[in-house]
Structure formats: structure tokens, C-alpha cells
Amino acid sequence: DAGVIQSPRHEVTEMGQEVTLRCKPISGHNSLFWYRQTMMRGLELLIYFNNNVPIDDSGMPEDRFSAKMPNASFSTLKIQPSEPRDSAVYFCASSRRGDNSPLHFGNGTRLTVT
Amino acid sequence: GENVEQHPSTLSVQEGDSAVIKCTYSDSASNYFPWYKQELGKRPQLIIDIRSNVGEKKDQRIAVTLNKTAKHFSLHITETQPEDSAVYFCAAQRGGNKLVFGAGTILRVKS
């Protein structure tokens, strides 16, 4: 089991550019979560999917952020246009849907917007 | 919705001493309480979890206790070692809903 796979590991971009983060969940997991981590705000849940359907996107900061899950093995988080305050580590995590299923995190994408 | 508070925010202990981190939650229907350890520059990893039908769970030097009446749960690390230094997060979940994390505790083990 390769675990949750995220790409890229690091992304440096200029303000105003579009950024796309990618995630492949663990095979067989049908819940997928996107988190953002900063020193100031800790681990924030941005959005999560069950069976590829977005369930709760209340954590998405604004319309510049969007997420998709076209199939069970792939999800993207897009920021357009990016701003310096978006700089953070973005984690994708997956779990089996249902009660009390442990969350498995990917290695994260460190985003720097200059 | 669920709210999880975690204390302390930082904790320094001498190697070999015990460390205790405490969390409180607001939703009495929450029934799953995992703890994650995050080393510097790495991803959070599950170290132990407890379900609401159990009051205590132990795994070697790590134990978690749950008090459902008071709505709090704690992580206990005994005989701390330098490699225990990390950020620890508690979390709470109700049914199949999203996991809500505490703000984290930075644990430093001094050798």
C-alpha cells in the first residue's frame, strides 16, 4: 500500500497564478479530505468527499478555491488566482467511509506564493 | 458543530518523565477520539485512538483515557524519549462526520 500520494511536494508560484494540487487516496478508501496547515490556524478542514461527492465545503476560504474528485482515485484542489496568504502546507487524507475510520494523511504540498 | 480544545499548547519535559495532554470536546454524541503525532516537516500520523465504549486504552508507553461524562480525553506518554518530541493533535468525531482537530501541543523532551 503506497499510502495517500500527493503532488507536487513543493510549489512556488507568483501571486495571481493558478495552482493545482493533486491527490491519490488509498485504494478502497471512499472518503477524501483536504486540509490546510499554518502556524497561525493549525489544521483546517477545507472540504471532504464521500464516494466522490463533496459533502462539506464550508471550510473553503473563498471562491478562489475549488476542489474536484472526478473518480475514486483522484482529487484536485485548485487556487485561482493565488495570493501570498495562501502559503501553507496542504494535506490530503483518506479513510474508509463509516464510523470511527482512521484518517491517513499524505505527505503534503508546501505551497509558497510570492 | 463540534469544538475541540487542547491544552497545553506547549509542554517541555525531562527525558524519562511523563507527559500528559488534555482535550475537551463539545458534542456529547462524539464517539471516536484519535491522537496524531506530527514530526517536523512530516505528515500527521495516527498513534492511538479510543472509541466511546472504552474508558482507557494502552499501547506500550502511550495511553489514552476518556471521560464521556465530563467530555474530555487525555494522552499519557510515559518514560518520554527525545524521539517523542513532536506536535500532538487530538480529534473528535461523531458518527461518519468530519474529524475535528484540536489546535495541537508542541512536546519537547529534553535530554
Which descriptors would you attach to this protein?
heterodimer, A: 114 residues, mainly beta, four-stranded antiparallel β-sheet, B: 111 residues, five-stranded antiparallel β-sheet, 0% helix, globular
Please characterize this protein's 3D structure.
The complex is a heterodimer of chains A (114) and B (111). Chain A has 114 residues and is mostly beta strands. In chain A, 0% of the residues lie in helices and 54% in strands. Chain A has no helices and 11 strands. Chain A has strands at 5-7, 10-13, 19-24, 31-38, 42-50, 53-56, 65-71, 74-79, 88-95, 104-105, 109-113. In chain A, strands 2, 4, 5, 6, 9, 10 and 11 form a 7-stranded mixed beta sheet that branches. The model of chain B has no long low-confidence stretch (mean pLDDT 94). Chain B contains no helices and 11 strands. The radius of gyration of chain B is 13 Å and the shape is globular. The interface between A and B is medium-sized, with 20 and 20 residues.
Strands, helices and their partners?
The complex is a heterodimer of chains A (114) and B (111).
Chain A (H helix, E strand, L loop, with lengths): L4 E3 L2 E4 L5 E6 L6 E8 L3 E9 L2 E4 L8 E7 L2 E6 L8 E8 L8 E2 L3 E5 L1
Chain B lengths: L3 E4 L2 E5 L4 E7 L6 E7 L6 E7 L4 E4 L2 E6 L4 E6 L8 E7 L7 E2 L3 E6 L1
Question: What's a concise summary of this model?
Answer:
Chain A is mainly β.
